[in-house]
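Preliminary data (for renewal application), zinc ion complex.
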Amino acid sequence: MKKPTADEKRHRCTRKRRYRSEGAALDAALVAGVARQRKAYRCPLCGHWHLASF
Ligand SMILES: [Zn+2]
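Predicted structure:
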């Protein structure tokens, strides 16, 4: 597996929805019915929160 490039990392951020807080992100996951598969993480690129699937 090759390491993700900076561009790929940025893409991972920009194509995702941003949330103001962890709570907002988890709320959105709950509404989508995917809360159990989702975790929110603080994005180092934009400083907002994204949902990550694990
Ligand atoms: Zn981001």
